[in-house]
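ESCALATION

Customer reports they have been waiting on this structure for their group meeting. Please prioritize. Original submission:
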Amino acid sequence: MVDILLISPPFKGLLREPVGLYYLAGILNSKGISTALIDFNIELPTRSRFREYFQHLKPKIAGVTSYTFNFSVAKKIVEEIKKINPKTITVMGGVHASALPEEILKSNSALDFIVVGEGEVTFLELCRRILDGETVEDVKGLAQRKDGKIVVNSPRELINNLDDLPSPNREMLPVKKYPVASVQTSRGCPYNCIFCNINRFYGKRIRLRDPKRVAEECSVLVKTYKPDKIFFFGDAFTFKTDWVEEFCDEILRRRLKFVWGCETRVDNVDLPMLKKMRKAGCYEIQYGIDYGDENVLKNLGKDFSITAISDSVEWAKEARLTVDAFFIFNVPGEDEETMENTFKLIQRVPVDAVEVNLLTPYPGTALWANPESFGMKIIDRDFDYYTTKKYVMENLDFPKSKFVPAFKTLLKRLNLVPTPGYYPEIYDFLERDIKLPAWKEEPFGVKRLFRL
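Update from on-call: job pushed to the front of the queue and completed.
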């Protein structure tokens, strides 16, 4: 039996550790609250297998995280939990639930609470009060039902010093099953991209972890689990030059040998920094370039230039780094000419890999709140298709009838079409028939037990 069960629902894309749930488990365990964690992405259970597992653990509280595109399967898991044991308290957190707490609680009777925003302190307080039999009405950062109405309490203050958090608890899952180990370096983002909701969730001020603490986490990871590589995620790994310098120096001082990658902005790097990163084991850098036309970049809330894009890629290659570039299409101000400018940029800069996405109006973003102000219209509100690979918005000045043939031509020119052994997801951007399953199909005529 455990007090809390944390659940990471199925999602599409690169398999990565549920670091947010690691942190929740770490803070709960540090306070003596017994916790278990299940990641449906490691091995999708059948419904009966999950029921058996849940009945064995008998958790008093179940916490489920959710992105926008896997909200429907998270909802099904919550509903299943209530069927198994109606007395289990169900809680949802994450960026999607935080953006739409009233709407979600109003339409999902199986869900008891939503943790709005950064979750560690709020979820800990909620769990302690429930387990101690105390009222939870005044818990900051909590959305709940009260007298038949949905109430969203005053927001929780952000954690000022991320190093006050206990270390993420990786012992609860088979880390070896993940192809990449993930380490968080910061929270918050000061930028204003119209398609991103991270600064609503984590705030606009970047809070950086102590680089020595990050290096220590890497040391434990490397010595204990021996991952093939580590990926650092934060909203701008290279936001502060001094931080990067200190982190790399610490890795070199400790003589840690591992390969790592990170994501950042093109206007937050220079050649000396990238060379230092390479010396400390960095092999890959991911840039959100987004587009190849400066007017369109401004429409997206980006304030960097095409020159900054070119320089950042050239510097990374000079530092002997692999460069992955992300681009977004079907955007405000786009037409055949701007699309051609972007194609030419992709051909000109020496990136190693290109990922093509479509503009998606995630709840909590400026694009979701007021799409018309950007000349856009939301035409599909089925969140299952909010994967950045589906056409869910229409550009009023570059409508579907014009965009679709131009985009299909672009995909062909970029060689993003099905070939033997390679099938890019973006190729099916108009399809609407593939959804995430909540459960694996039951094996016919076979009783399978969950091995505990």
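Sent to customer with the following note: The CA atoms of residues 417 and 429 lie 12 Å apart.
Escalation resolved.
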